[in-house]
Design a protein that fits this description.
It comes from Crocodylus porosus (Saltwater crocodile). This protein is an all-alpha fold and about 160 residues long. The protein has 3 helices and no strands.
Length: about 160
């Protein structure tokens, strides 16, 4: 049998006491932590809720920024398209009696010049004009007859 010497027995005893102290210290810490757990849990819950609140606030602000950006872009688009059309209308609208007279004068002379050009073209190229007119009439007649034939084939079939 194995006999322990006195120093070995004392060493074993000291180790067991030291281990017991470590275990007791660990248990005391666990008990203290266990007592602090409800307070810690409430703090953690509060921190989690604060974090969620901060995230919601950030998301709300981000959506507000996006909405404002869209509104600004729409306003800029409307402003960009608005003045161009209004400016063109203002340009064509006569400001006084003299400009109205000039507009009418120019318009009447443009019509007169176009009419004279057409008459000149007809005089010089009367055969060409007659040929174009006949081709136009033949095309219209052909389309009319084609429409009548195609509609009668649907009704008879």
């Amino acid at each position: 049998m194995h006999r322990e010497t006195k120093p070995q027995a004392e060493l074993k005893y000291l180790q067991s006491v030291t281990n017991e102290r470590k275990i007791n210290n660990w248990l005391e810490m666990k008990v203290a932590n266990f007592r602090q757990t409800p307070a810690t849990e409430t703090e953690l819950e509060k921190m989690r809720q604060d974090m969620e609140l901060a995230m919601l606030k950030y998301q709300y602000e981000e959506k507000q920024k996006q909405r404002q950006h869209k509104e600004k872009m729409e306003l800029m688009r409307l402003q960009a398209s608005g003045p161009a059309a209004e400016g063109l209308q203002d340009l064509l609208r006569p400001q006084d009696q003299l400009s109205l007279f000039l507009y009418c004068f120019i318009f009447i002379h443009v019509i007169y010049a176009v009419r004279e050009l057409l008459f000149f073209f007809v005089k010089k190229h009367h055969l060409f004009v007659i040929a174009v007119t006949l081709l136009y009439l033949i095309k219209k007649l052909w389309n009319y007859l084609w429409a009548i034939c195609s509609s009668s084939s649907y009704t008879s079939g």
